[in-house]
Design goal:
Elements lengths: L1 H8 L2 H35 L18 E5 L24 E5 L13 H7 L31 H4 L5 E4 L2 E5 L3 H13 L16 E5 L2 E4 L5 H11 L3 H4 L19 E2 L4 E2 L14 H10 L7 H9 L56 E7 L12 E2 L10 E4 L7 H4 L5 E3 L8 E3 L2 E3 L4 E2 L5 E2 L46
Parallel strand pairs: 5-10, 9-13
Antiparallel strand pairs: 1-2, 3-6, 4-5, 6-14, 7-8, 9-11, 11-12, 15-16
Length: 487
């Protein structure tokens, strides 16, 4: 009977009533889930609910989650920084950091305040001057009569006075032709074109002035270089070379041992050679003098009677140290001690060695056509305003008598040096201070300012086309030696 009752429950009407209740329950669960999903999606849509899908299995954890809780604003206490720059006062948020494990470490975020402390502070550009190539001793101020060093003033040459006045400067084609013929007769290759720049004759008026009786010697000039200091010969004369030593060429008598300049004692009184125009000007200014103008040099050599040589118009090879001397073998030729020739070889004003020995720098720029210009005549001509070469006068031991004529002109770049080129100084008549000789150390003008250029020392033995190269040994005179050993 019990079996029938269980069978009745599993079928018939009783079975249909039990199946309906179960279906309604399933339908209610489905509807409830649907409503929950709908509500959740609506919450996400309006921002009420956020989904954290990064925390699901298999998803990497990102950077730490930071929750910021802003407290009541308080004044911040400034922290001293290395740059001494005060930080502005502002509201500092309180940060609470909740960190979850991260599989990939991330670099720390830079702190702006730390970056400011460690950032290099820009400083103003500091100018560092180039090292002084003249050594430890600085190049001293030149040109003021109150600053003439006593050591240089004591060595300075005697000045002689030349009166002012008008004289004829330059020469004629006929005189040049006569000189060319004499040069060719003695074996030279002179040409009339060599004298064309000395014409035409023109009238020049000069104020009275003073000029040194003898050429500047090695003793005087090396005293100047040693006063300026080591290595001053390289660029110590207005930024240009002063003189060429054996360190730069074997055609020099001057040795430099990194501390001092010297020559063999036998030639201390010989005229300095291998000096540039810049070096000549700097020396004259250092002793309160200046280079003579070309007109002043010719006036001091010729006087006012138009003579061709300092002693007159006649060629006399015994009165000038030139290569025309027949009493010396070629290997015996060279510069000799200043003032070696008799008084009869001097100019009308007692100026010595104005013919031969060494050619002498003057202040003027060179132009081959200058004498034909109006500026060449008149009062105190100064030469062309610009140029590329400077004038030399008087010829040298390495030149024929043709070049030793008081009217002859030569030229050379001012930064060049030659074994046959030297100089003497001049001064204004009415200015100066009394030197060791008791004669005024005139303070003249600085002369024309040459354009700046790179120094190009080219001590070519001879720039005169009519002559052979200079000898390498000198017999009784050591001035032209090219192979002097360093001391």
């Amino acid at each position: 009977m019990a079996r029938r009752n269980y069978g009745a429950l599993s079928g018939g009407g009783g079975g249909r009533r039990g199946g309906g209740a179960w279906q309604w329950m399933v339908i209610g669960v489905v509807l409830g889930l649907a409503c929950s999903i709908t509500v959740g999606l609506a919450g996400v849509a309006v921002g009420l609910v956020s989904l954290d899908i990064e925390g699901l299995p298999g998803r990497p954890t990102s950077t730490p989650v930071v929750m910021v809780i802003t407290a009541t604003p308080l004044p911040a206490t400034p922290t001293p920084l290395a740059t001494d720059t005060p930080e502005p006062t502002e509201t500092q948020p309180v940060q609470v950091e909740i960190t979850a494990p991260s599989p990939t470490p991330l670099p720390p975020t830079p702190d702006p305040s730390i970056a400011e402390e460690t950032q290099p502070t820009a400083s103003p550009t500091t100018f560092i001057p180039a090292s002084n190539t003249a050594g430890d001793a600085s190049i001293q101020s030149l040109g003021s009569e109150d600053e003439v060093p006593q050591v240089l003033a004591a060595l300075a040459s005697t000045l002689v006075s030349v009166p002012g006045g008008t004289f004829t400067m330059g020469t004629t084609p006929a005189e040049v032709l006569t000189a060319v013929t004499a040069c060719q007769d003695e074996g030279g290759n002179c040409d009339i074109s060599f004298g064309e720049d000395s014409a035409p004759p023109h009238q020049v008026t000069l104020n009275a002035f003073q000029i040194e009786a003898t050429e500047v010697t090695y003793e005087q000039y090396l005293g100047f270089l040693n006063w300026m200091g080591p290595r001053s010969h390289l660029n110590g004369c207005d930024g240009f070379p002063c003189l060429v030593t054996l360190n730069e060429t074997d055609v020099s008598n001057v040795t430099f041992d990194s501390a001092n300049y010297r020559v063999p004692a036998a030639i201390n009184s010989h005229p300095v050679a291998n000096v540039t125009w810049y070096g000549a000007r700097a020396y004259c200014e250092a002793i309160g003098r200046r280079l003579p103008t070309e007109a002043e040099w010719e006036r001091a050599a010729r006087g006012n009677d138009g003579r061709v040589y300092p002693w007159g118009n006649q060629v006399d090879t015994t009165l000038a140290n030139t290569s025309s001397r027949v009493d010396l073998a070629p290997e015996q030729r060279g510069a000799v001690e200043v003032g070696s020739y008799p008084a009869t070889a001097s100019s009308p004003y007692g100026v010595q060695d104005m013919a031969g020995n060494v050619a002498e720098w003057v202040s003027d720029w060179y132009s081959p056509t200058y004498y034909s210009q109006a500026e060449a005549s008149g009062l105190n001509p100064q030469g062309p305003p610009v140029g590329t070469q400077k004038v030399l006068r008087g010829g040298s031991w390495d030149a024929r008598m043709f070049f030793a004529r008081s009217v002859h002109r030569q030229s050379l770049e001012p930064d060049q040096a030659r074994i046959w080129a030297g100089f003497r100084c001049a001064a204004d008549e009415d200015t100066g201070t009394t030197g060791a000789t008791g004669i005024d150390l005139g303070t003249g003008a600085q002369g024309n300012q040459p354009p700046a250029s790179e120094p190009t020392i080219e001590p070519t033995p001879n720039s005169q086309p009519t002559l052979p190269p200079p000898p390498n040994s000198g017999g009784n005179t050591a001035d032209q030696l090219a192979t002097l050993p360093p001391n």
